[in-house]
């Protein structure tokens, strides 16, 4: 079984060919391959599959084997992978996701701009000493703003992230973002991802945080979202208009899985 390791701003994925995993136990495969000690290592597993409503369908599983409706960084990686292997055209494609069909515009360097769809901004909720704004990008997010960039850097994310992710206020779990914005065109954000833990970046999390920042007057569009692994650009005009995200998608390495071993 051939695999490709890719990342978007350090948010990394194992990409598999759909024909090679037909009938496979994908949750078990995700847990095995995404293990950073005994597998390839990754935040999630990606498979470009056939679609009846778009150019292809994104099958995405978190590193714990759970499925997720949407993954923005994974979407960019999947689009580049599919373009480079001739599965889609060179410039533009549509991708079926659990959060609807998304349109991707590919650039020659492998980066892309993605139409993420309109967000849904919900009510604020106070939990574990923080106030979170609920934002849906087709998947759930809880965004809290801290008083300074230093507070974001110093936050014990591994301590508070799991508490919020599994809080009863979010019956299906949630992605958790902590951010700082001073009203300009940039914010700093860290994320605890549902089903994956702390990651270096999140595309949908970046969009949710930018939407929250714009809604609360903590940033203005376009918003450069600084993440632990890089940055993405998020555009949103407010209201029911779609969110657009631009960012990189990079190859790390390729290899072949044979039996219980991984060869790179």
What does this 3D model show about the protein?
This protein has 264 residues and is an alpha+beta fold. It has 2 domains: 2-111 and 249-263, Diaminopimelate Epimerase, Chain A, domain 1 (Roll); 120-246, Roll (Diaminopimelate Epimerase, Chain A, domain 1), CATH 3.10.310.10. Helix content is 19%, strand content 42%. It has 5 helices and 18 strands. It has helices at residues 26-34, 72-84, 149-154, 157-165, 203-215; strands at 2-8, 11-16, 44-49, 56-62, 92-97, 100-106, 112-117, 120-127, 130-136, 140-145, 175-181, 186-193, 197-199, 223-227, 230-235, 243-247, 250-258, 261-263.
Question: Keyphrases for this structure?
Answer:
alpha+beta, Diaminopimelate Epimerase, Chain A, domain 1, 2 domains, 5 helices, diaminopimelate epimerase activity
Q: Helix tally?
A: 5
Please provide the count of β strands. Answer: 18
CATH superfamily of the largest domain: Diaminopimelate Epimerase, Chain A, domain 1
Give the helix level as a range of percent: 10-25%
Mean pLDDT: 95
End-to-end distance: 12 Å
- At the third CATH level, what is the topology name of the largest domain? Diaminopimelate Epimerase, Chain A, domain 1
How does the major sheet shape up? Answer: 18 strands, mixed
**Any low-confidence stretches, pLDDT <50, length ≥5?**
none
Strand content: 35-45%
The CATH architecture of the largest domain can be given as Roll
Q: What is the H-and-E element order?
A: EEHEEHEEEEEEHHEEEHEEEEE
From the alpha carbons, calculate the radius of gyration and give it in angstroms. 18 Å
Q: State the secondary-structure class.
A: alpha+beta
CATH domain class of the largest domain: Alpha Beta
Count of domain modules: 2
Overall geometry: globular
GO molecular function, one term: diaminopimelate epimerase activity
Family: Belongs to the diaminopimelate epimerase family.
Subunit structure: Homodimer.
Main location: cytoplasm
